[in-house]
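Notebook, p. 212. Picked up where the previous page left off. The plan for this session was modest: take the two constructs that came back from the sequencing core last week, fold each one, and keep the raw output in the notebook itself so nobody has to go hunting through shared drives later. Recording the first one now, exactly as returned: residue sequence, then the structure token string.
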Amino acid sequence: MLERLAIRHYALIEDAEISLADGLSAITGETGAGKSIILGALGLLLGDKASGEVIRAGHDSATVSGTFHFDHVPQMLQDTLEEMDLELDDGDIVVSRTIRSNGRSTCSVQGTARTRAELAKLGLVLVDISAQRDHQSLFLATKQREVLDSASGDEKELEAYQSAWKELETLRSSYGELSTLVATSKREQEYLAFAVAEIEKMRIRSGEDEQIARQLEVIGAYEQIHDHVEEAVRRLHEEMDGISTLGGLRAATKETAEASRSDERLVSLASRLESCAIECQDIYETLRDYLDHMSFSQEKLDQLQSRQSYLKRLMKKYGPTLDDVIRYHAEAKAKLEAGIHGEERLAELSEKIRQSRKELQEKALALSTARKKAAVRLGKEVERVLQGLGMAQATFAIRVTNGEYGPSGADEVSFDICANPGLESRPISQVASGGELSRILLALTAVLKADDVPGTLVFDEIDSGIGGAVAVAVGQELKRLKQSHQVIAITHLASIAAMADNQLVVSKNVEKGLSFSSIRPVEGEDRVREIARMLSGDTGEVTLMHARSLLQSSVL
């Protein structure tokens, strides 16, 4: 349950901390006092989108935090916490969100940073909000189907259908791509065959053009390379001024070694000279061999230049790089093969699609059967609750009819109602009034949550468009829900507020030209006066007596 809600610098609220208890809590107040602000702050905490416009004037950020306590951890919450690698702290979970003037927000759960998406996922298992906007969403066929699927309690059929749908869509996509490839191949077959043959003839390799360019550079500088290497060999080996470079190194090595016999500090120098002499000897021999094997071949030069020219033509036609030519060859070859073997592969895919479509139809039938079964049960349960909510003659049914195949099945779902005997049942979008929609929404919530784990249910003006005995029936249904849930009702009706275990009043006042909304719990005579205000707008003695009577009768 939600134990504490702290709001700071949000809309008209400067700083408020709301303590909530078990059972049924009513939030009341004059129109425009800020009751919707409380709901907006709670939505922000549960991961709703928000902008910097909600920040109170004069501040650069707004923060909402909440503490939830669980004596027993619902399985759905436990699964979500494990998925997010979180744990309760003595049964508590603390959630916080701050939004800044630039529209960016930060979220935390148990003191660790989280994304808004994670916060929204956690919010789904912490609080269920039924607001006035849900009235219109009930008109949507997709929403009605979602409600029905939620009531079925078994998602296996839907998951199996969705898996089959995805497989069929993948096959259809592959068939479409291959069909395009086959058609392209047929149109371009002659050109593609020529291109493949032309490229294959050269047996090109990645990077070959760069390798040829380097070889041509070496051949082009043949004379310069030969002269420089020849001079290096001569200087290393031939004697100049009576001794060669190699000979000088050997002599220096010998003399230093002789000296080291008398001074061991020269031993390392002698060793290094010896290494230099060996290395120079190796360099000399390598250069000599290189020089011996150097040769100029006009034929080799012509071959390299010819191949380079051919590669350049290929790159100009299919490039611009040699790697692009190689890729083009692979793609062209694939298109050719598609033209040759594509018809066979299309036939294979067509058979797979036929089998997949058959499987999808079977899954759709199983899903439809499950939905129709759930529709009968849910319709009867909603009808029962509606009759207890002042619609004694109402009939409510959920129709499941055949429709087009789609990602969620091949069923069209419609919520139909007949509020007056003798009339035909019609979709709620065509005949239901605002008050009837409020009661349908409450009935659906009551039925769908009946077998659910304990949690927090929030109703925002669920009493819209009703009054009198119907309002009393709605209040009694809310009281029934409090047996398994924490229920919070934002209401304008005294008959519903009087049934609450706790009542909080939102008020707005102006100080120094600034508007402030505040919320406080009311008890005793304060609560009597608030109920009186809700009854007639005044706190005269007669109205106060009526308020006391209403509160006393609601306790019974």
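Okay, moving on. Second construct, recorded in the same format:
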Amino acid sequence: MFRLEERQLHILIGLLCGASLILLCLFGIGRLPEKKEPGIIEGMGDFSEGWVAVYETEDTEKLQQYRSTQEGAGSKESSMITEVVNFPDAFKVKNKKSLTLSHKIPDLDQSMVYLAIQTDNQAVRAFAGEDLVYSSLNAERRFPVSHVIPIDPQYSGMAVTIELTGYAKNQIEIEEIQIGSYTEVLVEIFRENGEFFAAGILLLGISICMLAVWFLVKKAWKRKKFLLYCILEGFALGFLLCLESSFAKFLIGWNYGVYFIQTCLIVFAAILHLIVVRSFVYRRKMVFVVDMGIIVYGIFYISVMVLQAFFLMRFDDIYFLGKIFFLLGIILYTALLGVAIYVYKRREGITVFYANITVLVCLLIKMMVWIFVRQENVGRWYIPAGIFIYMLAVWICGWKQIFHAEQEKDMIGYGDEAVREQVIEQLNPNLLFASFKTLQNLIKNGSDNSVKMIYYISVYFRGNLKAVNLAGEMIPFEEELEHMIAYLQMQKTRNSELDFAIECKVKDFNVPRHSIEPMVENAVKYGVANNGNKGNVVIRTYQREEGYAIQVVDDGAGFDRNKLTKKSPTALLNLFAMLEKTCQAKFEMISKEGKGTVITIILPALENDLPRTE
């Protein structure tokens, strides 16, 4: 069944980042904003009353009402309307025609002031007297923009005229027009939804600190990669929260760039979220569903960016669709994560599962508040709070994975004496001496098996030496299997009543070095040896729904599972603990005294997205 390897995930993210950068350079650099002059704090005022609106409309009902008034009595054949309006208001303007708003500029002192107006899908030009003082970029008519129109004191007492030309729809809506200094405009916009900006800055600050610590931690990439994915998701969500705020759009002023980056980040955040979830699902069908979600997000991103490049979609529509897809993904993959935890007992993902639930609860609360209160500015902290709690939870999971090695050492009880004992046990000097004695007898008797014995000894002890020098290294299973076969061949040469069989249907996966071979040794030393040195050992591999299965089977003496101990570094319980920590492996063990033992190790497929050792 199809699944993405880790390398393919990185290539996909890299390609999306590269494509985004190229598109931003091609279309965004030429749309950089002009530098605005800061003003002096003098107080923000409402400038929404007493505007003269002139526009052409096809609204017959509006025209009839207007012509029945004294102002419109002489315009029976014209579709133009001139009226005094207060905002908020909406105007049904004829397609691609302009709405002109005029007002007298109040008396100004020596300070520059600004008019602030929010538009959606309109190009804006502003005149003070006869002079053009503001003109929006053509690209800005394709998304909501906060326009800031500078008014120099030299225009005090003159008329200001704002011309709005609609492109996407025939209705132009104006919420309000405010006047004040540039700094005061910023303060007012921050009050609207500045909590998103504040939460985003906090999230970015923590992400930067964690990334710095991540670089300083001396751990293998395998242990650090999950935390890196979490940190990258923190950056994506932090930037999204910042840019979600009107304050960031207004402060940056580069509207095209802001909407472009938002469109990119919503997809990247969704993909990184799925990669985080992917770390806690192991069954092949579940991995397939997650990988298909990642591919769908990638296809969605490429499709909408192509459509936007040809002006067939607007950035705000793309961003809205991206948020819908992201929300649906959270719901679907939270359910998938719940199945992995509660049905298949993958308990290590329970923190991330409840973190996702927290995000969904916050979104639900926000929706309920909006439904019953019908005000956008009520309950705005719920979404930033949910995202922040989620990121703290996944960061904690990431740090836990990094420091599993230390926990494992504490659990097993590694110390200088234990390390020395482990080295001696891995070298297995007793078997070495016994093998050389067997080899000596074979040579004396002129047996052809002496050459084979030399080969098996060299392969076996070469593997033991590598296990000492490269402990914990991930290697192809075939290399570990060669080590096991060499051991069994040595023992069979010494004991003709020992038989073994290799039934490996799959070999294309990785295992920690010297992790399976000690189980085979235990089967021979304790199972077969305690059964009169007679018996069979079978090494079997096959593929299961949740990953790769390795079985070590013997028909020896068997044992009581309650009597297992951790005294030896290569004892079964220690081997199980090591595999569980390094590979998230699961175990099934059946042993009956006098009947034999079956040990099954299930390695999740995701743990084999690792580079092969040459």
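Notes on construct two before I forget. The longest strand covers residues 535-544.
Flagging for discussion at group meeting.
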